[in-house]
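[SOLVED] Need 3D model of a two-part complex

Original post:
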Amino acid sequence: DAGVIQSPRHEVTEMGQEVTLRCKPISGHNSLFWYRQTMMRGLELLIYFNNNVPIDDSGMPEDRFSAKMPNASFSTLKIQPSEPRDSAVYFCASSLMGRHEQYFGPGTRLTVT
Amino acid sequence: AQSVTQLGSHVSVSEGALVLLRCNYSSSVPPYLFWYVQYPNQGLQLLLKYTSAATLVKGINGFEAEFKKSETSFHLTKPSAHMSDAAEYFCAVSDNFNKFYFGSGTKLNVKP
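Solution:
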């Protein structure tokens, strides 16, 4: 199995630009999670989906952040417009409902200048 | 509500010494508990999980953890540290909807 795939691995952009992060979960998994990791705040859950439906987006920091899951094999996290404080590593994870353990992707390191 | 507390943000041990990383949890339901490891510039990798079977759980790389309900603890141990164990370790508890609550992490340093 290829594991969770995230792209790009690194993204450097200027303040005000739109950023789109992509995630392909493990085939057959039906839960998908987006996290953000920073030194100051640690690991934060931003949003998660069950069967492609957003269940809890209470961790999404602002309206500038949005996430979609148009099908079982693809999800995006979009930041528009981006700000320097959005600089972080963004992780996607997937799991099989009822199994609980989550499998993480390698992350996208976002730098907003 | 679920929460996790990891005592000690940094732990340093000598190579060959016992590793003990502490995790206490709070859960309103029977917990599912996990330990993950994160090596520099990588994602989180599952070390082991407790899902109400045996209270002593064995994981990868020689790690194990013991679930103690009376102490609401799930400490991670390894009898003999190796240099390759240097990483950050996260404890997590899951609710009934697969949502994870992570601790703040413990960075393990292994001295030669």
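Edit: Chain B is about 0% helix and 55% strand.
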